[in-house]
């Protein structure tokens, strides 16, 4: 091979190599750090970039996406001298590739160690119970401290999460017993309150039932009394109207003394009726009634001149005549005077 041809091939190879070293393609969401003669020159953006071969050197590329890093459990001592194991998760993002490259040798290790120390400082001022119930507070304090400390490294901490807080096994057993005792206590209190409310409601129901029953009985008694009073009033009014009608009829008929005596004698058997009438006391008006009735009989006999039926106390006496020269006894053994006349049977 001739020397000119060899030289030409070497020149072409050098040119091709220089061209390859000149063109740099940076992927999306990444950044490249360019050093010129050992010093920071510029940051390559995503896409096609040109550099000076043999003078510029790409130190490396940095991922600009948000990264999630989970650190192993770290033992932390609380303010009440209990050791708890805490797992943390950090969400961060590189916002300044130059600072992340030159301000710290390994920003990932720096973030991890800073998280551990900050976590111990924050949890060290809390007791166990507060540590277990204050996750949000711990996350906020961790994020604030980490974001401030990593700002000069070109890193922004977006979120800090505590995955787990594990107290010692003995403490967990004691906490479970305490929680169980609290639940049993609350259950007993709720059961007692339920029984109390049930007893109160039952007593109120019984009270209302008694009140309603008494009120109903009182209203029934009032209504019954009103009904009885109205019935008695109507009955008395009816009797009064009947008496008034009888009284009016008697006065319109203009009865004489003999008729009244006769009606009085007819009323006497009704007075004697009844099982309770063991003794019958003859009223003092009996004699006057008999006198009036005798006068009635004498008057009727004198007018007819014959025999008229004489009524005794029960209105069923024998037939006698009113003649002055005749005397005898009736069926009841009473003496009667008058003139005998033939009877019904001759």
TrEMBL record:
Gene Ontology terms: cellular component: plasma membrane; side of membrane
Pfam families in UniProt: Band_7
Location in the cell: Membrane
Positions of the UniProt region annotated as Disordered: 307-346
Topological category with respect to the lipid bilayer: Single-pass membrane protein
Basic and acidic residues bias spans: 327-346
SMART domains named among the record's database cross-references: PHB
SUPFAM superfamilies: Band 7/SPFH domain (SSF117892)
Residue ranges annotated for the Band domain, each copy included: 21-179
Keyword terms: Membrane, Transmembrane, Transmembrane helix
PANTHER family hit by this protein: STOMATIN-LIKE PROTEIN 2, MITOCHONDRIAL
Family to which this protein belongs: Belongs to the band 7/mec-2 family.
The protein's name: Paraslipin
């Amino acid at each position: 091979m001739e020397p000119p041809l060899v030289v030409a091939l070497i020149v072409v190879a050098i040119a091709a190599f220089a061209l390859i070293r000149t063109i740099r393609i940076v992927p999306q969401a990444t950044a490249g750090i360019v050093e010129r003669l050992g010093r920071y020159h510029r940051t390559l953006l995503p896409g096609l970039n040109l550099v000076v071969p043999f003078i510029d050197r790409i130190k490396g590329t940095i991922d600009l996406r948000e990264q999630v890093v989970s650190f192993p459990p770290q033992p932390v001592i609380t303010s009440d001298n209990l050791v708890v194991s805490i797992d943390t998760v950090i969400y961060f993002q590189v916002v300044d590739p130059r600072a992340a490259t030159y301000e710290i040798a390994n920003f990932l290790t720096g973030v991890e160690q800073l998280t551990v120390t900050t976590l111990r400082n924050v949890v060290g001022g809390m007791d166990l119970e507060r540590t277990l119930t204050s996750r949000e507070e711990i996350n906020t304090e961790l994020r604030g401290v980490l974001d401030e400390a990593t700002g000069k490294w070109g890193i922004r901490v977006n979120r800090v999460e505590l995955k787990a807080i594990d107290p010692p096994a003995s403490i967990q057993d004691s906490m479970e017993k305490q929680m169980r005792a609290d639940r049993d206590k609350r259950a007993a209190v709720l059961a007692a309150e339920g029984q109390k409310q049930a007893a109160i409601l039952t007593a109120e129901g019984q009270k209302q039932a008694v009140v309603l029953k008494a009120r109903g009985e009182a209203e029934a008694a009032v209504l019954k009394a009103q009904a009885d009073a109205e019935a008695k009033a109507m009955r008395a009014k009816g009797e009064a109207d009947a008496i008034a009608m009888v009284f009016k009829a008697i006065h319109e008929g203009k009865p004489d003394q003999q008729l009244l005596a006769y009606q009085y004698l007819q009323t006497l058997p009704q007075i004697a009726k009844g099982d309770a009438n063991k003794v019958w006391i003859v009223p003092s008006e009996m004699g006057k009634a008999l006198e009036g009735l005798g006068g009635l009989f004498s008057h009727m006999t004198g007018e007819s001149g014959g025999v008229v039926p004489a009524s005794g106390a029960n209105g069923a006496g024998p037939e006698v005549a009113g003649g002055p020269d005749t005397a005898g006894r009736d069926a009841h053994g009473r003496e009667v005077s008058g003139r005998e006349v033939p009877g019904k049977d001759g």
